[in-house]
Amino acid sequence: MEPQDPLAAARQLIERFLADRPERTLQAYRLDLEDFGRFAGEALAVAVGRLLAGGPAAADYLALQYAVDLRHRARAPATISRRMATLRALVSSAREAGLIDWLLAAPREEDVEAGGRAGQASYLLPRHPSEVDRLDLQHYALTAALGATHRAPVAGPARILDAGCGTGQWGFDLSAQFPGALVIGVDLVPGKAGGPAGHRFVRSNLLRGLPFLDGRFDLVHQRLLVSGVPLASWPALVAELARVTRPGGWVELVEPMANFDRPGPATERLLGLTKAFARSLGLDTEGAIPNALGPYLREAGLVDIGAEALEVPVGHWGGDVGALMATDIRAGFTRVCEVLQARSGLAEEEGRALIERAQAEWEEHEMAWTFALAWGRRADR
Q: Span 328-332, mean pLDDT?
């Protein structure tokens, strides 16, 4: 889009898009576009300008949020499909006009369904093709920093549950570590394909309860869900994890602290923007969750509670682990900036500049991020 007058370009695009349409098609397109403007809370030309200016990742996320909103409003599947098709056709016209060089992806049905389920529209980071790589890097960094896959002193587990499994890599590693065990990963959408023979994926919403009988697992593991589980939902969620753990089995929780250790001003600015967004979604932004992991386990009836604070370096100063964490955090901040750009909460240039300065700060200040671990055993009967 022409940087000097994006609003005028958006108006011209809409006019060209609607010109010379048959009357019934024109009426349908107008209804669809007007509804998109209402969803965005802006004049249509402003909303379209924001859609195009945010770039492909932000536009895909905005389209997904719009599809979720349509489902929340109980619009018929045919209506949702038509409005997504109208939006994609408009973006295609913008590409043909030379305003952009990308196309809008159709939101995947499983992502719309996941976003529409209770409590899950609050996930901080939008699904993105690179999110798989980011989560895997995060896993490798934490495993290397910990020097193990887990801290709970479980011996020879037969059944292992990975709640909120993401890509599934933690479960894949556990399958290799305990080749005779059945490892089940639970999440709203599948992770990576091609897992080991002993690994299974089950689609489920953790906030609606786990689809397993009481006392089924020797080890139940949950990690880094503070960015997706509302603050008020944590006690019930941990109690549900304890329910499916067998007597003598273990539950382990891992969550990051709300603040970095030794950050610089650009990093603080990025973290502040992220927290403001997270707060609007009902997520913990003050560190209540990592500081309450042990008490949550105790309230759920578990005993032999253990806890550890793991400081993980961020930046090349911290060797391979620090380099992995720097890549993870850079990607996470990039995703958040794209969302804020789509919501008109941050200029693209400012986001890029902040991330560039923040990476220099990580090396200069030898920044780190502390993770809270807690584990507990379900009492023998």
A: 91
Contacts of 133 (CB under 8 A, 6+ apart): 331
**323 or 49, which is more confident:** 323
Burial class of residue 309 (count of CB atoms within 10 Å of its CB; 0-12, 13-18, 19+): exposed
Closest CA to 43 of 20, 14, 67, 77: 14
Residue 232: partners with Cβ closer than 8 Å, 6 or more residues away:
282
- DSSP β-ladder status, 368-378 and 245-256: antiparallel
Model confidence at 189, in pLDDT bands (50, 70, 90)? confident
How open is the CA angle 199-205-207, to the nearest 5 degrees? 125
Distance from the Cα of residue 90 to its chain's centroid: 28
Output the pTM of the full model. 0.70
The label of the residue with tokens 């105790």 reads 298
Distances (CA, A) of 137 to 8, 85, 133, 200, 291: 42, 35, 6, 22, 25
What separation, in Å, do the N-terminal and C-terminal C-alpha atoms of the chain show?
Answer: 67
Res. 118 pLDDT band, cuts 50 70 90 = very low
Cβ-based neighbours of 25, under 8 Å, separated by 6 or more: none
Q: In terms of DSSP H, where are the helices of the chain?
A: 6-18, 23-40, 44-53, 55-72, 77-96, 109-116, 131-146, 169-177, 234-243, 265-280, 288-291, 293-299, 319-342, 348-364
Instruction: Quote the pLDDT of residue 115.
Output: 56
Provide, rounded to the nearest whole percent, the portion of the chain with pLDDT above 90: 63
DSSP annotation of 261 reads: B
Amino acid found at 376: G
Unique residue bearing structure tokens 């809270």: 372
